[in-house]
Amino acid sequence: MLIRSAKEDVKYVMFSREQIAARVRELGSALTAKFNGEPPLMICVLRGAAFFFTDLCREMDTLMDMDFIAASSYYKGTKSTGSVRLVKDSSIDMENRHVVLVEDIIDSGLTLEYLVKLFATRNPKSITTVAMLDKDVQKPNRFDVDFYGFKIPDEFVIGYGLDYADYYRNLPYIAVLKEECYQ
Ligand code: IMP
Ligand code: MG
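A: This is the predicted complex of the input protein with magnesium ion.
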């Protein structure tokens, strides 16, 4: 593992701050239209979705309430381990509510699939899934997200909430990490 600075460790910027902001604005409008009149319960999946979530909620012109959960799915290095665990649950009653689950990125889809199944048992009116990035990996039965920001190739990305070994989350852009950093 080789962690130096963004300047040295970023291979290239995939989405700039401006590109992200423009896309989040579009997603906010789409979600506002979807829930017009009925305040959704917005749920952030910590920690990766933190910046995306707060930006997205501010681009939505509707009443809402917010909660924060944490799931741990990852990761040995940069590969998914396939097991998901809820580390912090929601304390808000979901019964008859429109629930919106906001994730940073979908890779195998296991995290969102697990969370949707779990929350479905709490009798919400609906569950909508949103992810900033959808890693377009070819896997059978992969989870189909309702709204996504960008589709990306199967590369390991950092920034705008996404980490490698808990670093780089605070980068204001989304970038590809140099391979030498995780070898
Ligand atoms: P999934 O359960 O395989 O869909 O994995 C989803 C989780 O893995 C995300 O919420 C991220 O925390 C993490 N993850 C997947 N791909 C990346 C990446 O390219 N960079 C950083 N984290 C990632
Ligand atoms: Mg995550």
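Residues 12 and 77 are 20 Å apart (CA to CA). The pocket of inosinic acid (ligand 1) is lined by residues 48, 73-74, 80, 103-111, 135, 156-157, 162 (CB under 6 Å).
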